[in-house]
Design brief:
Keywords: Chaperone
Pfam families: ARM_TBCD, ARM_TBCD_2nd, TFCD_C
Strand content: under 5%
Oligomer: single chain
CATH class of one domain: Mainly Alpha
Structural class: mainly alpha
Shape: flat
Radius of gyration: 43 Å
GO molecular function: beta-tubulin binding; GTPase activator activity
CATH topology of one domain: Leucine-rich Repeat Variant
Helix content: 55-70%
CATH architecture of one domain: Alpha Horseshoe
Number of helices: 60
Largest sheet: 2 strands, antiparallel
InterPro entries: ARM-like, ARM-type_fold, ARM_TBCD_2nd, TBCD, TBCD_C
Distance between the termini: 32 Å
Strand order of the largest sheet: 1-2
C-alpha cells in the first residue's frame, strides 16, 4: 500500500509541476505503443531508456488497440492547442523515444538491393504521433531533440527518397499491395497522401538539422546513387545539364533531392526544402563543387519563366516561380558564409543575372504606378501602425526606383495638404506665439494621419528624394508643429507617436545633404523647439529622440551646407541622453539652458503653453518648478521680467476659471512661480512703478479665492489638485513680507478649511504643513480663539468623517499662537485619540493624531524658549505615548494591516521630536531602553518602508548624546554589533533588502543587551518568520537560525527562555469576555509605568493584550516549527526548555477554535514526538484525540500525522519497540464495528505487533476523515483506543 501511495504522490506532484494534467494517461498509452514496436522487432528496451513509471506491466496489444491508443493520444494533444507551453516539461520525453524507435527502424532496415522498406504499421503510427506533436508544439520547439548521428544521414535520406517514390507511384492513393490493417490506419487518420506529406515534412526538417554535422560527406559516402536506386523523377533538375551526374555522390543526391522538393513542394514542404538547400550550400564540401551550379539552375529556371508574359504562365508555373523565389531567399541569406575568392566573380555574375530577371517581373506602366502611389498615400493614414510603416516604405522605394522629381514633389504636396486638413488657429497672445505653426490647433486632426505623414517625409528626406528649396521651406514649419502635437482622446492625451516621428524627421533632415543656409531662421526655430521637446515632453522616448536629433544637427554643423545651432555643444553637455531621461533633473537643466538668451524666451513660452497644462500632475509640477528656477535665474534681467509679468502672468490669471481642470491647476501653478522668491517680488514692485497693470495683476492674484468658481473647488473631478496648488500659492504669498496677505487672509482661510474636509489624506497632510507655516508667519493678525475652537469641535466629534481627520491635522497650527491653555487642551485631545481607549476613533484619526503630535513642537514659539525644562518634559511625554500606543498599533481590517499607518506616523513623529533637542537628550534609562527596544522590533517589520523609517530612528537614537551613562553603554553595544565602524554608521544597513536587514539585525542577539531589548527584537523576528510571505519568512528565520546555531549552549538556552516567556505571556491572556471586566482607565495612567513590565502589570487582560495574542501566537508557533525543521533544538541542555515549550504549545491548542493554530500545533506534536520517547507517548495520544474533532480538516491532518509517526517510528527510535497489548475486543475490531461476542473484560493477551500497526495504518489511510463523524462509524474510537494502547506499550530499551 505504501508503494502504491508513493506512486500516486509522485504522479500528483508531476501533474502539479508540469501542468500536463493527462501526463499519466498519455505516457501509459504511449508506453504500450513503444513497447509494441520494440517487441515487434526484438529490440532491447534498455537501449531506448524506457524508464517510465506510469505503467509497470504492459501486455501484448493488438494493432487495433494500438490504433485506438494513438487516436486517443492525438486527442489528448489536441487539448493543448491553445496552451502548448504546458507540455514543455515533458516534451523531450514525448519526442525522443518515438524518434529513437523510428531512427532504429530506418537504420536497420535500409534496403541494399530492393528499394523497398519493410512495411510496419506501428512505425506509421509513431510518425503520425510525432507529426501531431510537431503540429501542437511547433517543429522549431521539438527539432532540437532530433538525432544528429553521422550514421543516420544516408539512411534518413534513403527513407525520404522511398517516401517520395511512394507518393509518385501511388498518386496519393494506397494502390500498392497493402494489408487491410494499413488501409485501416489511413482511413482512420486521413488520406495516405496527407500522411506521406507529413512524413516528408518531418524528414526534410531532420535532414536540414543533419546538414550541420561537421564531417566531410565523402568520408561516409557509400557511393550508391540514391536517386537512381529509388528511380526518382528529378529530370527537371538533371536534364538542364548543369550538374555532372556521371559520378553520383551522397552530397549531390542530397542536393538534388532538396532542389527537387524546393521546386515542387507545396506550402511548408517547399519552405522546409528551401531551408535544407540553404543549409547544404553553406557546407564547404558542397559549396566548393556545387554552389555555382545551384545558382545557375535558379538563373536558368527564372529566365525560362520570365520570358513569358504573366498571362501565359500556367498555375503550375506560377507555383514554381514562387517556390524558386523562396528557395533563392534561403540561399542568399546564407551565401555570405560560403563565398571564397576562387568563385567570387562567378557568384557576382549570377547575382546580377538574377536581379535583372527580377526587375523584368515588375516592369509596369506609369498609370499602374500612380494607382499604387494613390493607394499607399491612403494607407499612411491607417489606424494600424504596421500598415502605415509598410505604406511609407513602399512609397519611398517606388520614388527611388522611378527617380522622378515631379512625382516626388506631387507626393510632398499631397502630404502637406493632409497636414492642413482639419487644422484651426488657437486664440493665443501674439507675444507668446508669434509664428503661425505655434498657433496651430490640431484638436480635430487624426494622429494616425500626422504620424504616417511624418514618417513618409522622414523617409523621403533620409533617401535624399526632396531636393527643392521651396519644398524644404514648406516642410520645416509643419515639422515644428508636429514636434508639439498632442490631442485629447477621451481621458487620455495622444500624439506621442507623432512627436516621435517628428523627431525622426528632424534627425533625417540633419543628415540630408542639402545646403541649409537659406533655412537659417527656420533651423534656429527648430533648435529652440527641439530643446523644449527634449526637456519637457512627457514621454521619455520622445525626449531622447529629440536629444538625438539635436545632437545630429550639432555634429554636422561644421559640414558643407550645415547650420550651427546656438550654443549646441553647451546644451548637449547639460541635456545629454541620460539626463533627459530623468524628469527630476529637468528643472535644474532648464534653468541653466535659459541663461542662454537664444533659448530663454522659447523655453518660458513653451512651458506656459504646453507642459504646465498637462493632465499628468507630475509633469505640471516639473514645469512649475522649472518656471520658478528660470525666474530666479533671470531675476536681474529687467527686459525678460517685464515680458513675463506683462504677458505670461495675465495669461495665467485669465485661465483660472477654464472649463478644463488641468488648465485651471496649471494656471495656478504658473502664478505660484512668480511669487516663489522674495527677491522676485521686489523686482515686481520696481517694474510696477512704471506699469500700473502689474499692480492690478497682483491684486487679482490675492483675490483668487473669490475669483475661482466655488464649484471648481468643491467638485469631484480636479478639485483636489486645484486646491493643493491654490493653497501652495497662498503659502508663498503669506511668507512674503512685501505682500499684505493679512488683509485678504479671511478669503484664503475658507480655501484651507475646505481642503481639510476633502477625503484625501495626502492633500490634508500637505495643506496642514502650509497652514502651520502661514499661522507662524501672520500669527498676530489671525483671530485664533474662534478658529481653534471650531477646528477643535470638528476634531473631537464622535462622527468619523474626512472633516474630522483633516481637522486633527489642522490642529498642528495651535502652537503658533503661544496660548498654553489652548495648547494643553489640544494636546490632551490628540493623546486621547492616539490612545483610542474605547475604539471610538478610526485608524485614520489615530494616524493623523500621531502625525500632529510630531508636528506640534517641530517649530517652537517664543514662550517655549523661556522654559526649556518644561518643554523637554512635554516632548518626552509625547514620545512615551507615541511609543506605547503608536508603535504597538496593529489594527487590521478588510484593507489589511492598517495599523502600519499609525506605526509609520509614530516613527516619523518621534524622529521629528528627537530632532528638536538642541543639547544632550534628557531621557532616563527606562524610557531610552523602551524606545530602543521597540525601535528594534519595528526594524524587523514586514513592510520595507517601516523597516527603513525605524532604521532611521535607530540611527538617530544611537547617535544622540544623553545625560545617562547606561544609555550610552546600551547604544555602544547595539551600535558596535550593527555597524563595524561605530560611532560612524558604516557600512549602512539597506533596510529595503530583507536579507541584509535581518542578517545585520540578528547580530544584536550576540550582544549582552537588556532583556527587554532582546525580547522586543525577538518579537519582530517571530512576526516576520511566522508570516505567510515566503520571502520575508525565509530571510528572518534563516538569519535567526544562523545566529542561534553559532551561539554557545547557555546563550541558546537564554534565547529559548525568551521564547518560552513570550509564549507563556500570550497563553496567560484571558478571553476577551473576561478581559473587558478588568480594563484599567489608561488616561490616568503613566505610560512609562505600564511599559516597565512589558504591559504585564495589569491584573486583567486588556484589548491590546488580546490583540497581541491573536497577532503573535500563530507566528510564534510557526517560528517554533521552523526551528524544529532546521534541528537547532538538539543540543546539550535543551531538554528542559523544550519541555516547557511543549507545555506552552499544548496550552495554545487547548480548547482553541482557530483552525490555523490547531493545524500548526498538530504539526508540532509530530515533531515533538520525534524529540524524545517521553513526548512521543503524549503526542500520539493528543493527535489521536483530534480524530473526533468537529472540523474535517483537523481530523484529516491528525490522521496524516499519526500515519507518519507509525511509518517513521523505527527510523527515529531504532532501539525502541512498540509493544501492543490488547484484549479480544481490539483483536476482533474491524471497520464494520465491534464483534457481537466481544468481551471487553477479557484478560489482556499479546497480539502480533505487525498486525496491529498495519491495521491502524490501514484505518488511517483508507478512512475518509473528511466525512461527517456519523459516517466514520467506529473508526475514530478504534484508532484512539488502539493508539492509547500503543503509547502505553512503547518501550525504551536504553
Amino acid at each position: 500500500m505504501e508503494t502504491s501511495q508513493n506512486q500516486q504522490i509522485l504522479a500528483r506532484t508531476h501533474r502539479e509541476e508540469s501542468g500536463f494534467k493527462e501526463a499519466e494517461e498519455y505516457f501509459e498509452l504511449a508506453n504500450s505503443l513503444y513497447r509494441a514496436t520494440i517487441q515487434n522487432h526484438d529490440w532491447n528496451e534498455n537501449e531506448f531508456g524506457l524508464s517510465i513509471n506510469y505503467a509497470s506491466n504492459i501486455k501484448q496489444h493488438s494493432l487495433q488497440h494500438l490504433e485506438k491508443s494513438t487516436k486517443h493520444l492525438i486527442k489528448i494533444l489536441g487539448r493543448y492547442q491553445e496552451t502548448p507551453s504546458l507540455l514543455d516539461k515533458d516534451i523531450e520525453l514525448m519526442v525522443k523515444i518515438p524518434l529513437l524507435l523510428i531512427e532504429k527502424f530506418i537504420t536497420q532496415n535500409t534496403p541494399i538491393d530492393n528499394p523497398v522498406f519493410p512495411e510496419d504499421p506501428i512505425i506509421d503510427l509513431l510518425f503520425r504521433l510525432l507529426v501531431e506533436i510537431a503540429n501542437v508544439r511547433g517543429i522549431k520547439k521539438i527539432i532540437k531533440f532530433f538525432s544528429c548521428k553521422v550514421e543516420s544521414i544516408e539512411p534518413v535520406l534513403e527513407y525520404l527518397a522511398y517516401t517520395l517514390k511512394t507518393k509518385e507511384t501511388n498518386g496519393g492513393n494506397p494502390k500498392r499491395n497493402q494489408t487491410s490493417t494499413i488501409n485501416s490506419i489511413y482511413a482512420e487518420f486521413g488520406s495516405k497522401s496527407a500522411q506521406l506529406n507529413d512524413i516528408t515534412h518531418i524528414l526534410l526538417h531532420w535532414l536540414a538539422l543533419l546538414a550541420n554535422v561537421p564531417m566531410d560527406l565523402r568520408l561516409i559516402d557509400s557511393e550508391t546513387s540514391i536517386v537512381k536506386k529509388y528511380n526518382l523523377d528529378v529530370s527537371s533538375i538533371t536534364s538542364i545539364g548543369i550538374f555532372d551526374y556521371t559520378e553520383p555522390s551522397l552530397a549531390l543526391d542530397w542536393l538534388i533531392i532538396g532542389l527537387h522538393r524546393c521546386y515542387y513542394g507545396i506550402g511548408i514542404e517547399n519552405e522546409t526544402a528551401s531551408r535544407l538547400v540553404g543549409q547544404l550550400v553553406k557546407r564547404t564540401d558542397i559549396s566548393k563543387f556545387y554552389l555555382n551550379q545551384t545558382l545557375e539552375i535558379f538563373n536558368f529556371s527564372m529566365n525560362e519563366l520570365m520570358t513569358k508574359e504573366t498571362q501565359e504562365l500556367s498555375l503550375t508555373e506560377v507555383y514554381k516561380l514562387n517556390n524558386l523565389l523562396v528557395g533563392l531567399f534561403n540561399i542568399l541569406s546564407v551565401i555570405g558564409i560560403s563565398i571564397t575568392e576562387a568563385h567570387e566573380n562567378d557568384l557576382v555574375k549570377h547575382l546580377e543575372l538574377m536581379w535583372t530577371s527580377l526587375k523584368k517581373s515588375v516592369d509596369v506602366d506609369s498609370l499602374l504606378i500612380e494607382e499604387m502611389i494613390s493607394f499607399l498615400l491612403d494607407m499612411i493614414s491607417s489606424k494600424e501602425t504596421v500598415v502605415r510603416w509598410s505604406a511609407v516604405k513602399g512609397i519611398s522605394r517606388i520614388c527611388c526606383e522611378v527617380g522622378s522629381d515631379e512625382m516626388t514633389t506631387d507626393i510632398v504636396n499631397t502630404i502637406l495638404s493632409t497636414f492642413e486638413e482639419s487644422t484651426l488657429e488657437k486664440h493665443v497672445d501674439f507675444a507668446l506665439a508669434d509664428n503661425w505653426w505655434e498657433r496651430v490647433d490640431v484638436s480635430l486632426t487624426s494622429n494616425s494621419s500626422w504620424h504616417g505623414c511624418c514618417l513618409c517625409l522622414a523617409e523621403m528626406l533620409r533617401l535624399g528624394l526632396v531636393k527643392s528649396e521651396s519644398m524644404f521651406s514648406k516642410i520645416v514649419p509643419f515639422l515644428l508643429a508636429a514636434l508639439k502635437y498632442e490631442i485629447m482622446r477621451g481621458g487620455h492625451m495622444v500624439g506621442d507617436n507623432v512627436r516621435d516621428a517628428a523627431c525622426y524627421m528632424a534627425w533625417c533632415l540633419a543628415r540630408s545633404d542639402f545646403k541649409k543656409a537659406f533655412l537659417k531662421d527656420l533651423v534656429n526655430e527648430l533648435a529652440k523647439t527641439l530643446v523644449c521637446v527634449m526637456l519637457f515632453d512627457k514621454e521619455v522616448h520622445v525626449r531622447r529622440a529629440a536629444s538625438a536629433a539635436f545632437q545630429e544637427f550639432v555634429g554636422r554643423s561644421g559640414s558643407e551646407g550645415g547650420v550651427e545651432f546656438p550654443h549646441g555643444i553647451d546644451v548637449l553637455l547639460l541635456a545629454d541622453f541620460y539626463t533627459v531621461g530623468n524628469l527630476q533633473l529637468v528643472p535644474e537643466v532648464a534653468a541653466k539652458i535659459s541663461l542662454f538668451d537664444s533659448y530663454c524666451k522659447s523655453i518660458t513660452t513653451h512651458i506656459s503653453l504646453f507642459p504646465i497644462f498637462q493632465i499628468d500632475n507630475k509633469i505640471q509640477l516639473i514645469a512649475a518648478d522649472s518656471l520658478e528656477r528660470i525666474f530666479v535665474a533671470k531675476k536681474d534681467d529687467s527686459e525678460y521680467m517685464n515680458f513675463v509679468f506683462n504677458s505670461i502672468l495675465p495669461y495665467f490669471v485669465s485661465l483660472v476659471n477654464s472649463p478644463e481642470s488641468a488648465i485651471r491647476t496649471g494656471s495656478i501653478l504658473g502664478i505660484r512661480a512668480f511669487f516663489s522668491q522674495k527677491e522676485l517680488y521686489e523686482n515686481i514692485k520696481n517694474i510696477s512703478l512704471h506699469n500700473s497693470k502689474i499692480s492690478q495683476y497682483v491684486a487679482d492674484v490675492l483675490n483668487l479665492p473669490t475669483t475661482i468658481h466655488k464649484s471648481y473647488l468643491t467638485g469631484i473631478v480636479g478639485s483636489d489638485t486645484l486646491i493643493s496648488s491654490l493653497c501652495g500659492l497662498g503659502g508663498y504669498l503669506a511668507v512674503n513680507s512685501n505682500i499684505d496677505f493679512a488683509s485678504v487672509y479671511s478669503k484664503w482661510e475658507s480655501v484651507f478649511l475646505l481642503a481639510f474636509s476633502k477625503d484625501n489624506h495626502d492633500l490634508q497632510l500637505k495643506i496642514s504643513k502650509i497652514w502651520t507655516k502661514i499661522c507662524f508667519s501672520i500669527k498676530f493678525e489671525i483671530p485664533y480663539e474662534n478658529l481653534i475652537d471650531r477646528i477643535y469641535e470638528k476634531a473631537s466629534s464622535f462622527m468619523e468623517s474626512p472633516t474630522k481627520n483633516g481637522s486633527i491635522l489642522a490642529l498642528s497650527c495651535t502652537n503658533a499662537f503661544q496660548n498654553p491653555e489652548t495648547s494643553e487642551k489640544v494636546l490632551n485631545l490628540l493623546v486621547d485619540i492616539l490612545v483610542n481607549e474605547n475604539k471610538n476613533n478610526s485608524v485614520e484619526s489615530v494616524r493623523n493624531a500621531a502625525i500632529t503630535l510630531g508636528a506640534f513642537y517641530s517649530k517652537e514659539n517664543d514662550n517655549m524658549k523661556n522654559d526649556i525644562s518644561l518643554l523637554n518634559q512635554k516632548k518626552l511625554f509625547l514620545i512615551r505615548n507615541l511609543v506605547y500606543y503608536g508603535f504597538s498599533n496593529y489594527q487590521s481590517d478588510h484593507r489589511g494591516d492598517v495599523g502600519s499607518w499609525v506605526r509609520l506616523a509614530s516613527i516619523n513623529s518621534v524622529i521629528q521630536i528627537l530632532s528638536t533637542f538642541h543639547n544632550d537628550l534628557p531621557i532616563d534609562t527606562e524610557l531610552y531602553t523602551i524606545l530602543v527596544s521597540n525601535c528594534l522590533e519595528l526594524c524587523a517589520s514586514l513592510q520595507s518602508n517601516l523597516r527603513h523609517q525605524a532604521g532611521q530612528l535607530l540611527s538617530l537614537l544611537l547617535s544622540l548624546k544623553t545625560n545617562n551613562s547606561e544609555n550610552m553603554e546600551l547604544a555602544r553595544k547595539i551600535g558596535t554589533k550593527l555597524f563595524g565602524n561605530y560611532p560612524e554608521f558604516e557600512p549602512p544597513i539597506d533596510y529595503i533588502s530583507k536579507n541584509e536587514a535581518f542578517t545585520r539585525l540578528s547580530q544584536t542577539f550576540t550582544a549582552e543587551n537588556n532583556k527587554l531589548v532582546d525580547k522586543k527584537l525577538l518579537t519582530g523576528f517571530v512576526l516576520a518568520a511566522g508570516n505567510l510571505s515566503e520571502s520575508v519568512s525565509q530571510s528572518a528565520s534563516a538569519a535567526f537560525i544562523q545566529i542561534f546555531s553559532k551561539a554557545e549552549d547557555n546563550h541558546k538556552v537564554y534565547l529559548l527562555n525568551l521564547l518560552i516567556e513570550m509564549h507563556s505571556e500570550l497563553n496567560s491572556v484571558e478571553p476577551e469576555s473576561k478581559a473587558n471586566d478588568n480594563l484599567n482607565q489608561r488616561q490616568n495612567t503613566n505610560p512609562a509605568v505600564l511599559l516597565v513590565g512589558d504591559k504585564a502589570t495589569s491584573k486583567g487582560s486588556s484589548n491590546t493584550d488580546i490583540d497581541s495574542k491573536n497577532r503573535l501566537l500563530l507566528p510564534l508557533l510557526r517560528m517554533i516549527d521552523l526551528l524544529f525543521a532546521d534541528q537547532v533544538f538538539y543540543f546539550p541542555g535543551s531538554e528542559k526548555p523544550i519541555d516547557q515549550i511543549f507545555f506552552q504549545v499544548r496550552k495554545s491548542a487547548f480548547k482553541s477554535r482557530n483552525l490555523n493554530r490547531l493545524m500548526v500545533c498538530q504539526k508540532l506534536y509530530l515533531e515533538f514526538a520525534f524529540f524524545s520517547l517521553k513526548m512521543a507517548k503524549t503526542c500520539i495520544v493528543l493527535l489521536a484525540n483530534y480524530l473526533k474533532h468537529p472540523l474535517p480538516k483537523v481530523r484529516q491532518n491528525a490522521a496524516d500525522h499519526l500515519y507518519s509517526f507509525i511509518s517513521l517510528f523505527e527510523d527515529y527510535y531504532p532501539d525502541s519497540t512498540m509493544v501492543v497489548k490488547t484484549d479480544s475486543f481490539f483483536k476482533e475490531q474491524t471497520l464494520n464495528g465491534p464483534s457481537q461476542n466481544g468481551n471487553q473484560d477479557t484478560e489482556l493477551e499479546d497480539l502480533d505487533e505487525e498486525d496491529a500497526l498495519t491495521k491502524v495504518s490501514n484505518v488511517l489511510l483508507e478512512t475518509n476523515w473528511m466525512n461527517p463523524i456519523p459516517m466514520l462509524k467506529v473508526a475514530p474510537t478504534y484508532v484512539i483506543d488502539t493508539i492509547k494502547v500503543i503509547a502505553n506499550g512503547i518501550k525504551d530499551q536504553n
